[in-house]
Each structure stands twice: as structure tokens, then as C-alpha cells.
Amino acid sequence: MSWFTALAPVIPMAISAIAGLINGKHGRHGSGPIVQRDFAAEERNHALEARNRELAEQMYRNQIEQQKRNEELIAQNNKLREDIERYQREHEQQLKEMTKLLAELKEKKLNSFEAIEAHDKKAKEALIQLAKQAKPIGMEGNNIALFGLTSTGKSTMLNSLLGEKKAATGVGETTVEVASYPGRDFILWDIPGRNDELSYMSLQYISFFKGLTRRLILIQHTVKENSSIMKLLDAIEIEYDIVVNKMDRVEEEERAEFCDQIRKEIAKIGLKSVGHVFFVSAKYPAQFPDWLQMVNYLKHPQT
User: Fold this and answer.
1) Three-state secondary structure readout of 266-292
2) Do residues 122 and 260 share a domain?
3) Do 264 and 247 fall within a single domain?
4) Residue 46 shares a structural domain with residue 66
């Protein structure tokens, strides 16, 4: 028997042993199915751990950013309160006169500027005179206020402009007092919708209005929804912009006629201090070109 014949039975075993050594040397890069599964599971675990670390870091960054915004909001509100208190001290006599006038108007149940204009010309002139004497409250940054009656979509508008949900939305009036929301390019102020306009005629409110960079008045169906406050701003020479919201609810074939009707109403009422008129949908911003124009306009107060 030759030496080859004697070794033949053990050759396959030797080959298998050598393959095992090679696999052991190269570890997880081996081609065995078990090794491949272990390697894939390890890779998935590493990816999952990395993703978890990334999410944890993002959550921490978000918390820091939210804390910073909350601090900015508190500081902004405190500053406004201090400015109003200082204004009250510096204009005590004017405040007394305006307070007395507004009390008389309330007693007469003249709760809107249009009602005052129609029924008490003398009170109207006194109101305008006092309002024109009011000095703007000094406010830092790009400050934009949104006015609008219940259900004009003010809160949705605020959230869309800020790019995140900050203001509460829902049926009915969700704002009970002036609230500010700092954003990247501007500070938005949510002015509560009121059936009683007399509160807007206080010197504190008027000074606040004068200190704003922009004033947006939201409407949905007709200019008459908020024409009284517009006439008040006209009378005291404060510029404002009209935002026709919820355009997505107007049938597409009727939109051109609807926009034309709004412009005719503005001319018919004789509004003098209107800067721009934007036709938008805060819920579906991308559907209407005016949205981008409005955002660009708000971001750049010098335009």
C-alpha cells in the first residue's frame, strides 16, 4: 500500500480542519451562515445604539431650545409689562381722561368704533385726539400681532408661521389675553378676539399697537367681520394688513370672484391704512402663492 493510499481517508478531515482554522483566523468575516447571521445582528445592534444616541441627543437639544424659548417668552412678557407700567406712570393724566371716556361709552352701550362714529361724534373726536397722543411702547425685534374674531384661524396661522404647534387650536375663542410666541424671524403676538372693542381703545393697547412692526387682521368671509377695528386704526393713522384666511374652503372656480369682492369691500368701506391684502390658507399654506409672499414680507420689516 502506497503512502497516498494510506493518507487518503484523512485528507478530507485535514481540509475541514484547515478551513476551520481559516474561519477562526478571519473571525466574523467568514462565510459560514451562522457567522454571517451573528455579524448582521451585531451590525443592527450597533446601528440601533447609534440611532438611540442620536435621538437622545436630539431630545436634549430640543429641551435646551424649548427652555431658551420659554425664557425669552418670559423676558418678553416681563419687559412689556414693565413698559406698560412705566407708560402708565408717565401718562397718568391721559390715562385718566381715556378711562373716563371709555366708561361713559360703555354706559351708553357704544362698544365699537363704528357705533361711536355713528352715535357720538364728540366722543369719537375726543377718542381720536387722545389716541393720537399715545406714544408707541418700545419693543425690541420684529413684532407682529394677529387680530381676528373667533374661528378666523388665528391659532393655526400662528403655528404655521412658527413652523411648530405652540398656540392652542379649537372651536371657539382659545386666546383670553395677549400672548407672545418667539420665532426665528419674528415675535408673534396673539391678540384675543373680543366682542367688546372698548378694551382695544385703552391707551395701553393703542401704545402697544403703535410699537408693533406689523399688524395682521384676519378675516374669513367679509371685511365687515373686522371693519370696526380697521376704522379705528385708520382714524389714529396706524397701518395694518388684511389676511383673508381659509381660502381652501372657497371653491376653486369661485376664488377669483371672491378675491375681487374683498377688494371691492375695502374700497367701498373706504379703508385708508391697508398695506397689503393676502389670500391664504394657514392649514394648507403651499396651495396659495400669497403665503410665501406674506412670509417674506413679515420676515423683512424694511420692505
Assistant:
1) HHHHCCCCEEEEEECCCCCHHHCCHHH
2) yes
3) yes
4) yes
In the listed set 66, 87, 108, which residue is the last one of a domain according to the structure? 87
Q: Is the pTM of this model over 0.85?
A: no
Q: How far apart are CA 276 and CA 153, in angstroms?
A: 19
Residues 77, 165 within the same domain: no
The pLDDT profile of the chain, 303 residues, written as one tens digit per residue, is: 555 555 455 555 555 555 554 555 444 445 566 666 677 777 788 788 888 888 788 878 877 876 776 677 677 667 777 776 776 677 678 888 888 999 999 999 998 899 999 999 999 999 999 999 888 988 888 999 999 887 788 889 999 999 876 655 544 444 457 888 888 889 999 988 765 678 888 888 899 999 999 999 999 999 998 898 999 999 999 999 999 999 999 999 999 999 999 999 999 999 999 999 999 999 999 999 999 999 999 998 776
Tell me whether residue 175 is in a domain.
yes
Distances (CA, A) of 130 to 89, 96, 303: 16, 11, 30
- The CATH number of residue 205's host domain is 3.40.50.300
C-alpha cell at 12: 478530507
| CB of 189 closer than 8 Å to CB of 196 | no
Non-local CB neighbours of 59 within 8 Å, separated by 6+ positions: none
Query: How many other CB atoms sit within 10 Å of the CB of residue 38?
Result: 14
Number of independent structural domains in the chain:
2
Q: Is residue 265 part of a domain?
A: yes
* Parent domain of 199: 91-299
8 A C-beta contact, residue 173 and residue 246: no
